[in-house]
Amino acid sequence: MSLIRLSICLILFVTWFPAQAQRLGESLPVWHTGQLDIHHINTGQGNATFMVLPDGTTLLVDAGAINSLDWRTNAPRNIPVKPNNSRQAGEWIARYVRNALRFQASPVLDCAVITHFHDDHMGTPSNVTKRGRGGYVLTGITEVGEHIPIRKILDRGWPDYDYPRSFGGDSMVVNYRRFLAWQTQHNGLVTERFTAGQMNQITFVKQPELRSKYPVEIRNLMVNGAMWMGEGDKTRQLFPDLKTLKAAEYPNENMCSIVFQLRYGKFTYFSGGDIQGVLQFGAPAWHDVETPLASILGPVDVQLLDHHGYADSENGTLLANLQPRVFIIPAWASSHPAPEVLNRLFSKEIYSVERDVFATNLLPEAKAAISDFLPRLKSQSGHVVVRVEPGGKSYRVIVLDDTSETYTVKAIYGPYKSK
Ligand SMILES: [Zn+2]
Protein backbone atom coordinates (compact mmCIF):
# COMPACT_ATOMS: atom_id res chain seq x y z
CA MET A 1 0.00 0.00 0.00
CA SER A 2 1.37 3.43 -0.94
CA LEU A 3 2.00 6.06 1.71
CA ILE A 4 -0.79 8.28 0.29
CA ARG A 5 -3.30 5.42 0.37
CA LEU A 6 -2.25 4.54 3.90
CA SER A 7 -2.71 8.14 5.08
CA ILE A 8 -6.15 8.34 3.44
CA CYS A 9 -7.14 5.14 5.23
CA LEU A 10 -5.86 6.49 8.54
CA ILE A 11 -7.75 9.78 8.10
CA LEU A 12 -10.96 7.89 7.23
CA PHE A 13 -10.41 5.64 10.25
CA VAL A 14 -9.96 8.44 12.80
CA THR A 15 -12.74 10.64 11.39
CA TRP A 16 -15.31 7.85 10.98
CA PHE A 17 -14.58 5.22 13.60
CA PRO A 18 -14.81 7.20 16.87
CA ALA A 19 -18.29 8.44 15.94
CA GLN A 20 -19.57 4.94 15.24
CA ALA A 21 -18.03 2.61 17.79
CA GLN A 22 -20.12 1.45 20.71
CA ARG A 23 -18.49 1.85 24.10
CA LEU A 24 -19.29 0.45 27.51
CA GLY A 25 -21.16 2.92 29.70
CA GLU A 26 -22.25 5.11 26.76
CA SER A 27 -25.48 5.19 24.76
CA LEU A 28 -25.67 2.98 21.70
CA PRO A 29 -24.51 4.96 18.64
CA VAL A 30 -27.13 5.46 15.97
CA TRP A 31 -27.49 3.14 12.92
CA HIS A 32 -25.73 4.08 9.69
CA THR A 33 -26.23 3.03 6.05
CA GLY A 34 -25.03 -0.47 5.25
CA GLN A 35 -25.41 -1.70 8.83
CA LEU A 36 -28.09 -4.19 9.89
CA ASP A 37 -29.40 -3.67 13.42
CA ILE A 38 -31.60 -6.26 15.14
CA HIS A 39 -32.91 -5.00 18.49
CA HIS A 40 -34.54 -7.51 20.84
CA ILE A 41 -36.45 -5.04 22.97
CA ASN A 42 -37.12 -6.10 26.55
CA THR A 43 -40.39 -4.81 28.03
CA GLY A 44 -40.88 -7.98 30.12
CA GLN A 45 -44.18 -8.37 28.26
CA GLY A 46 -43.35 -10.63 25.34
CA ASN A 47 -41.54 -10.43 22.02
CA ALA A 48 -40.63 -7.23 20.16
CA THR A 49 -37.83 -7.41 17.61
CA PHE A 50 -37.05 -4.19 15.78
CA MET A 51 -34.77 -4.16 12.74
CA VAL A 52 -33.18 -1.46 10.66
CA LEU A 53 -32.14 -2.95 7.33
CA PRO A 54 -28.99 -1.67 5.56
CA ASP A 55 -30.94 0.84 3.40
CA GLY A 56 -32.87 2.27 6.39
CA THR A 57 -36.03 0.18 5.91
CA THR A 58 -37.60 -0.52 9.30
CA LEU A 59 -39.24 -3.74 10.46
CA LEU A 60 -40.96 -4.69 13.72
CA VAL A 61 -41.58 -8.36 14.43
CA ASP A 62 -44.21 -8.73 17.19
CA ALA A 63 -45.23 -6.26 19.90
CA GLY A 64 -46.21 -8.25 22.98
CA ALA A 65 -48.21 -6.78 25.86
CA ILE A 66 -49.57 -9.20 28.42
CA ASN A 67 -50.66 -6.15 30.47
CA SER A 68 -49.94 -5.05 33.98
CA LEU A 69 -53.53 -5.39 35.15
CA ASP A 70 -54.13 -8.74 33.57
CA TRP A 71 -54.09 -11.96 35.58
CA ARG A 72 -51.09 -13.15 33.62
CA THR A 73 -48.85 -10.36 34.87
CA ASN A 74 -50.29 -10.22 38.35
CA ALA A 75 -49.18 -13.82 38.65
CA PRO A 76 -45.75 -14.12 40.29
CA ARG A 77 -44.56 -16.20 37.34
CA ASN A 78 -44.37 -13.09 35.12
CA ILE A 79 -41.95 -10.22 34.72
CA PRO A 80 -43.09 -6.67 35.61
CA VAL A 81 -43.18 -4.04 32.83
CA LYS A 82 -39.74 -2.67 31.92
CA PRO A 83 -38.41 0.00 32.40
CA ASN A 84 -41.37 0.66 34.78
CA ASN A 85 -45.17 0.47 34.92
CA SER A 86 -45.82 4.17 34.18
CA ARG A 87 -46.50 3.18 30.55
CA GLN A 88 -47.76 0.07 28.76
CA ALA A 89 -45.42 -2.16 26.77
CA GLY A 90 -46.65 -0.90 23.37
CA GLU A 91 -45.69 2.68 24.24
CA TRP A 92 -42.28 1.60 25.57
CA ILE A 93 -41.66 -0.25 22.30
CA ALA A 94 -42.66 2.84 20.28
CA ARG A 95 -40.33 5.04 22.36
CA TYR A 96 -37.45 2.60 21.87
CA VAL A 97 -38.07 2.61 18.10
CA ARG A 98 -38.28 6.42 17.98
CA ASN A 99 -34.94 6.71 19.75
CA ALA A 100 -33.29 4.17 17.44
CA LEU A 101 -34.70 6.10 14.45
CA ARG A 102 -33.57 9.53 15.64
CA PHE A 103 -31.72 9.88 12.31
CA GLN A 104 -35.14 10.08 10.58
CA ALA A 105 -37.15 13.32 10.73
CA SER A 106 -40.46 11.43 11.01
CA PRO A 107 -39.94 7.82 12.09
CA VAL A 108 -42.11 5.20 10.37
CA LEU A 109 -42.35 1.43 10.52
CA ASP A 110 -42.19 0.28 6.92
CA CYS A 111 -43.33 -3.19 7.90
CA ALA A 112 -44.62 -5.01 10.98
CA VAL A 113 -45.06 -8.77 11.33
CA ILE A 114 -47.34 -10.46 13.85
CA THR A 115 -46.01 -14.03 14.12
CA HIS A 116 -49.21 -15.38 15.69
CA PHE A 117 -52.26 -14.29 17.65
CA HIS A 118 -51.14 -14.48 21.27
CA ASP A 119 -50.97 -11.61 23.76
CA ASP A 120 -47.19 -11.83 24.24
CA HIS A 121 -46.78 -11.19 20.49
CA MET A 122 -49.56 -8.71 19.66
CA GLY A 123 -51.04 -7.35 22.94
CA THR A 124 -54.33 -8.13 24.67
CA PRO A 125 -57.13 -5.58 25.22
CA SER A 126 -58.36 -7.23 28.42
CA ASN A 127 -58.27 -4.84 31.40
CA VAL A 128 -56.97 -1.96 29.25
CA THR A 129 -58.99 1.27 29.11
CA LYS A 130 -56.72 3.35 26.82
CA ARG A 131 -58.32 3.86 23.43
CA GLY A 132 -56.98 5.06 20.10
CA ARG A 133 -58.35 7.58 17.63
CA GLY A 134 -60.25 4.77 15.92
CA GLY A 135 -61.96 3.59 19.12
CA TYR A 136 -59.94 0.40 19.45
CA VAL A 137 -58.05 -0.47 22.65
CA LEU A 138 -54.36 0.47 22.73
CA THR A 139 -52.27 -2.57 23.50
CA GLY A 140 -49.19 -4.10 21.89
CA ILE A 141 -49.17 -3.51 18.13
CA THR A 142 -52.23 -1.21 18.19
CA GLU A 143 -50.46 1.03 20.72
CA VAL A 144 -47.22 1.06 18.71
CA GLY A 145 -49.31 2.13 15.68
CA GLU A 146 -50.79 5.01 17.66
CA HIS A 147 -47.32 6.50 18.16
CA ILE A 148 -45.53 5.54 14.93
CA PRO A 149 -47.18 5.18 11.51
CA ILE A 150 -47.07 1.60 10.17
CA ARG A 151 -47.06 1.24 6.37
CA LYS A 152 -47.59 -2.53 6.01
CA ILE A 153 -48.56 -5.40 8.31
CA LEU A 154 -48.01 -9.08 7.59
CA ASP A 155 -49.87 -11.67 9.65
CA ARG A 156 -51.09 -15.27 9.36
CA GLY A 157 -54.81 -14.54 9.12
CA TRP A 158 -55.56 -11.77 6.63
CA PRO A 159 -58.18 -11.31 5.24
CA ASP A 160 -60.53 -13.96 6.70
CA TYR A 161 -58.92 -14.80 10.06
CA ASP A 162 -60.49 -18.25 9.98
CA TYR A 163 -57.63 -20.80 10.17
CA PRO A 164 -57.83 -23.24 11.82
CA ARG A 165 -61.06 -21.78 13.22
CA SER A 166 -62.82 -18.42 13.16
CA PHE A 167 -61.43 -15.65 15.38
CA GLY A 168 -64.82 -13.91 15.46
CA GLY A 169 -65.15 -14.43 19.22
CA ASP A 170 -61.53 -13.61 20.10
CA SER A 171 -61.45 -10.13 21.68
CA MET A 172 -57.74 -9.73 20.91
CA VAL A 173 -58.09 -10.39 17.19
CA VAL A 174 -61.38 -8.44 17.00
CA ASN A 175 -59.64 -5.39 18.52
CA TYR A 176 -56.65 -5.82 16.19
CA ARG A 177 -58.93 -5.98 13.15
CA ARG A 178 -60.65 -2.73 14.20
CA PHE A 179 -57.18 -1.19 14.30
CA LEU A 180 -56.36 -2.56 10.83
CA ALA A 181 -59.62 -1.24 9.37
CA TRP A 182 -59.18 2.24 10.84
CA GLN A 183 -55.50 2.52 9.90
CA THR A 184 -56.26 1.31 6.36
CA GLN A 185 -58.95 3.94 5.91
CA HIS A 186 -57.16 6.88 7.54
CA ASN A 187 -53.43 6.19 7.20
CA GLY A 188 -53.13 4.02 4.09
CA LEU A 189 -52.02 0.90 5.98
CA VAL A 190 -51.64 -2.18 3.77
CA THR A 191 -52.21 -5.63 5.30
CA GLU A 192 -51.12 -8.87 3.65
CA ARG A 193 -51.13 -12.50 4.62
CA PHE A 194 -47.58 -13.79 5.14
CA THR A 195 -47.05 -16.46 2.46
CA ALA A 196 -44.58 -19.34 2.92
CA GLY A 197 -41.89 -19.66 0.25
CA GLN A 198 -41.93 -15.98 -0.72
CA MET A 199 -38.90 -13.73 -0.65
CA ASN A 200 -40.48 -10.45 -1.69
CA GLN A 201 -42.85 -9.55 1.15
CA ILE A 202 -40.14 -7.88 3.25
CA THR A 203 -37.64 -5.99 1.12
CA PHE A 204 -35.84 -2.65 0.93
CA VAL A 205 -38.36 0.15 0.50
CA LYS A 206 -36.26 3.14 1.57
CA GLN A 207 -33.46 2.79 -0.97
CA PRO A 208 -34.21 -0.28 -3.14
CA GLU A 209 -31.28 0.63 -5.40
CA LEU A 210 -28.94 -0.45 -2.55
CA ARG A 211 -30.09 -4.08 -2.79
CA SER A 212 -27.13 -5.20 -4.88
CA LYS A 213 -24.61 -3.34 -2.74
CA TYR A 214 -26.06 -4.65 0.53
CA PRO A 215 -27.55 -8.08 -0.29
CA VAL A 216 -30.34 -8.82 2.20
CA GLU A 217 -32.84 -11.62 1.61
CA ILE A 218 -35.75 -12.39 3.90
CA ARG A 219 -37.23 -15.80 3.09
CA ASN A 220 -40.67 -16.74 4.43
CA LEU A 221 -40.14 -20.28 5.72
CA MET A 222 -43.40 -21.29 7.33
CA VAL A 223 -46.90 -20.18 8.37
CA ASN A 224 -50.09 -22.10 9.23
CA GLY A 225 -48.17 -25.34 8.67
CA ALA A 226 -47.27 -24.45 5.06
CA MET A 227 -43.50 -24.89 4.77
CA TRP A 228 -41.04 -23.82 2.08
CA MET A 229 -39.46 -26.87 0.42
CA GLY A 230 -35.99 -25.38 0.08
CA GLU A 231 -36.08 -24.45 -3.61
CA GLY A 232 -37.95 -21.91 -5.74
CA ASP A 233 -41.08 -20.85 -3.92
CA LYS A 234 -42.50 -24.38 -3.54
CA THR A 235 -44.26 -25.27 -0.27
CA ARG A 236 -45.91 -28.28 1.34
CA GLN A 237 -48.53 -28.51 4.08
CA LEU A 238 -47.39 -30.23 7.30
CA PHE A 239 -50.81 -30.26 8.98
CA PRO A 240 -53.57 -32.72 8.00
CA ASP A 241 -56.66 -31.44 6.20
CA LEU A 242 -58.92 -30.03 8.92
CA LYS A 243 -61.79 -32.13 7.57
CA THR A 244 -59.98 -35.23 8.83
CA LEU A 245 -59.59 -33.85 12.39
CA LYS A 246 -61.93 -33.27 15.32
CA ALA A 247 -61.99 -29.65 16.49
CA ALA A 248 -60.00 -30.61 19.61
CA GLU A 249 -57.23 -31.96 17.38
CA TYR A 250 -56.75 -28.79 15.30
CA PRO A 251 -53.27 -27.26 15.13
CA ASN A 252 -52.64 -24.95 18.11
CA GLU A 253 -51.81 -21.26 17.74
CA ASN A 254 -48.07 -21.69 18.40
CA MET A 255 -47.66 -24.26 15.63
CA CYS A 256 -49.19 -21.82 13.15
CA SER A 257 -46.47 -19.19 13.83
CA ILE A 258 -44.74 -17.23 11.10
CA VAL A 259 -41.13 -18.41 10.62
CA PHE A 260 -38.55 -16.58 8.53
CA GLN A 261 -34.84 -16.42 7.84
CA LEU A 262 -32.86 -13.28 7.11
CA ARG A 263 -29.57 -13.37 5.22
CA TYR A 264 -27.17 -10.50 4.78
CA GLY A 265 -24.15 -11.66 2.79
CA LYS A 266 -22.76 -14.50 4.92
CA PHE A 267 -24.80 -13.55 7.99
CA THR A 268 -27.96 -15.57 8.78
CA TYR A 269 -30.67 -14.92 11.40
CA PHE A 270 -33.53 -17.29 12.24
CA SER A 271 -36.85 -16.31 13.83
CA GLY A 272 -39.42 -19.05 14.54
CA GLY A 273 -42.13 -17.38 16.64
CA ASP A 274 -43.51 -19.92 19.12
CA ILE A 275 -43.13 -23.09 17.06
CA GLN A 276 -42.55 -26.34 18.93
CA GLY A 277 -40.50 -29.47 18.38
CA VAL A 278 -40.80 -31.61 21.51
CA LEU A 279 -43.92 -33.76 21.48
CA GLN A 280 -46.32 -34.04 24.39
CA PHE A 281 -47.17 -37.64 25.30
CA GLY A 282 -49.72 -39.01 22.85
CA ALA A 283 -49.52 -36.05 20.44
CA PRO A 284 -49.39 -36.84 16.70
CA ALA A 285 -46.00 -36.50 14.99
CA TRP A 286 -47.12 -33.46 12.95
CA HIS A 287 -47.20 -31.40 16.17
CA ASP A 288 -43.40 -31.31 15.91
CA VAL A 289 -42.80 -28.63 13.26
CA GLU A 290 -39.13 -28.01 14.12
CA THR A 291 -37.94 -31.35 12.70
CA PRO A 292 -39.29 -30.90 9.14
CA LEU A 293 -38.13 -27.28 9.19
CA ALA A 294 -34.62 -28.39 10.19
CA SER A 295 -34.43 -30.52 7.03
CA ILE A 296 -34.44 -27.43 4.78
CA LEU A 297 -32.06 -25.32 6.88
CA GLY A 298 -28.30 -25.09 7.26
CA PRO A 299 -26.15 -23.36 9.87
CA VAL A 300 -27.16 -19.90 11.09
CA ASP A 301 -25.29 -17.23 13.03
CA VAL A 302 -28.02 -16.00 15.34
CA GLN A 303 -31.23 -17.67 16.47
CA LEU A 304 -34.08 -16.06 18.37
CA LEU A 305 -35.22 -18.97 20.53
CA ASP A 306 -38.49 -20.67 19.57
CA HIS A 307 -41.30 -20.28 22.10
CA HIS A 308 -39.15 -18.29 24.58
CA GLY A 309 -37.15 -21.44 25.37
CA TYR A 310 -40.20 -23.16 26.86
CA ALA A 311 -39.79 -26.92 27.43
CA ASP A 312 -41.47 -27.92 24.13
CA SER A 313 -39.00 -25.97 21.94
CA GLU A 314 -35.51 -26.29 20.46
CA ASN A 315 -35.29 -29.98 19.73
CA GLY A 316 -31.97 -31.69 18.98
CA THR A 317 -32.59 -32.03 15.23
CA LEU A 318 -33.20 -28.31 14.83
CA LEU A 319 -30.09 -27.47 16.87
CA ALA A 320 -27.93 -29.99 15.00
CA ASN A 321 -28.90 -28.38 11.68
CA LEU A 322 -28.92 -24.69 12.68
CA GLN A 323 -25.81 -24.84 14.92
CA PRO A 324 -26.32 -21.24 16.06
CA ARG A 325 -23.27 -19.30 17.27
CA VAL A 326 -25.52 -16.91 19.21
CA PHE A 327 -28.86 -17.59 20.90
CA ILE A 328 -31.23 -14.91 22.11
CA ILE A 329 -33.88 -15.90 24.64
CA PRO A 330 -36.92 -13.57 24.72
CA ALA A 331 -38.06 -14.50 28.21
CA TRP A 332 -41.04 -13.15 30.19
CA ALA A 333 -42.13 -15.96 32.55
CA SER A 334 -40.61 -18.22 35.19
CA SER A 335 -40.80 -21.11 32.70
CA HIS A 336 -38.45 -19.28 30.27
CA PRO A 337 -36.06 -20.88 29.56
CA ALA A 338 -36.57 -24.47 30.71
CA PRO A 339 -33.51 -26.22 32.19
CA GLU A 340 -33.73 -29.07 29.65
CA VAL A 341 -33.73 -26.53 26.80
CA LEU A 342 -30.53 -24.93 28.13
CA ASN A 343 -29.07 -28.39 28.45
CA ARG A 344 -29.66 -28.93 24.73
CA LEU A 345 -28.48 -25.42 23.81
CA PHE A 346 -25.11 -26.00 25.48
CA SER A 347 -24.77 -29.66 24.42
CA LYS A 348 -21.50 -30.30 22.56
CA GLU A 349 -22.93 -33.70 21.58
CA ILE A 350 -25.57 -32.02 19.41
CA TYR A 351 -22.96 -29.79 17.74
CA SER A 352 -19.42 -28.93 18.63
CA VAL A 353 -18.83 -25.23 17.81
CA GLU A 354 -18.76 -22.54 20.49
CA ARG A 355 -21.99 -20.70 21.28
CA ASP A 356 -23.04 -17.69 23.34
CA VAL A 357 -26.45 -17.44 24.99
CA PHE A 358 -28.15 -14.14 25.83
CA ALA A 359 -31.41 -13.72 27.77
CA THR A 360 -33.46 -10.50 27.69
CA ASN A 361 -34.84 -11.22 31.14
CA LEU A 362 -34.84 -13.79 33.91
CA LEU A 363 -37.16 -13.96 36.89
CA PRO A 364 -35.68 -15.01 40.26
CA GLU A 365 -37.79 -18.19 40.03
CA ALA A 366 -36.30 -18.97 36.60
CA LYS A 367 -32.80 -18.31 37.92
CA ALA A 368 -33.34 -20.78 40.77
CA ALA A 369 -34.48 -23.46 38.31
CA ILE A 370 -31.52 -22.96 35.93
CA SER A 371 -28.84 -22.04 38.50
CA ASP A 372 -26.33 -24.53 37.07
CA PHE A 373 -26.39 -22.67 33.75
CA LEU A 374 -26.39 -19.07 35.02
CA PRO A 375 -22.60 -18.57 34.93
CA ARG A 376 -22.63 -19.60 31.27
CA LEU A 377 -25.20 -17.01 30.15
CA LYS A 378 -23.75 -13.84 28.59
CA SER A 379 -26.69 -11.74 29.75
CA GLN A 380 -29.58 -12.13 32.17
CA SER A 381 -31.39 -8.84 31.48
CA GLY A 382 -31.37 -6.06 28.92
CA HIS A 383 -32.20 -5.19 25.33
CA VAL A 384 -30.04 -7.44 23.16
CA VAL A 385 -28.86 -5.79 19.93
CA VAL A 386 -27.23 -7.69 17.08
CA ARG A 387 -25.29 -5.15 15.01
CA VAL A 388 -24.12 -6.56 11.68
CA GLU A 389 -21.36 -4.68 9.86
CA PRO A 390 -21.92 -3.48 6.26
CA GLY A 391 -21.79 -6.45 3.89
CA GLY A 392 -22.62 -8.98 6.64
CA LYS A 393 -19.14 -10.45 7.21
CA SER A 394 -19.15 -9.91 10.97
CA TYR A 395 -21.40 -8.81 13.80
CA ARG A 396 -21.41 -7.88 17.46
CA VAL A 397 -23.92 -8.51 20.23
CA ILE A 398 -24.50 -5.49 22.44
CA VAL A 399 -26.48 -5.65 25.69
CA LEU A 400 -28.25 -2.40 26.67
CA ASP A 401 -29.55 -1.33 30.05
CA ASP A 402 -33.35 -1.78 30.17
CA THR A 403 -34.05 -0.02 33.48
CA SER A 404 -34.28 3.46 31.91
CA GLU A 405 -34.34 5.05 28.45
CA THR A 406 -30.63 5.88 28.29
CA TYR A 407 -29.89 2.72 26.25
CA THR A 408 -26.51 2.50 27.94
CA VAL A 409 -24.19 -0.23 26.69
CA LYS A 410 -23.70 -2.84 29.46
CA ALA A 411 -21.66 -5.36 27.49
CA ILE A 412 -20.27 -5.94 24.00
CA TYR A 413 -19.49 -9.38 22.57
CA GLY A 414 -17.71 -10.12 19.30
CA PRO A 415 -16.91 -9.31 16.63
CA TYR A 416 -18.14 -12.72 15.51
CA LYS A 417 -17.28 -13.87 12.00
CA SER A 418 -20.40 -14.73 9.98
CA LYS A 419 -20.65 -18.31 8.68
ZN1 LIG B 1 -45.04 -16.40 22.98
UniProtKB/TrEMBL annotation:
Residues 1-21 form the signal peptide. It comes from the Bacteria. Keywords: Hydrolase, Signal. GO terms for molecular function: hydrolase activity. InterPro entries: Competence_DNA_uptake (IPR052159), RibonucZ/Hydroxyglut_hydro (IPR036866). This is Metal-dependent hydrolase, beta-lactamase superfamily II. The lineage of its organism: Bacteria, Pseudomonadati, Bacteroidota, Cytophagia, Cytophagales.
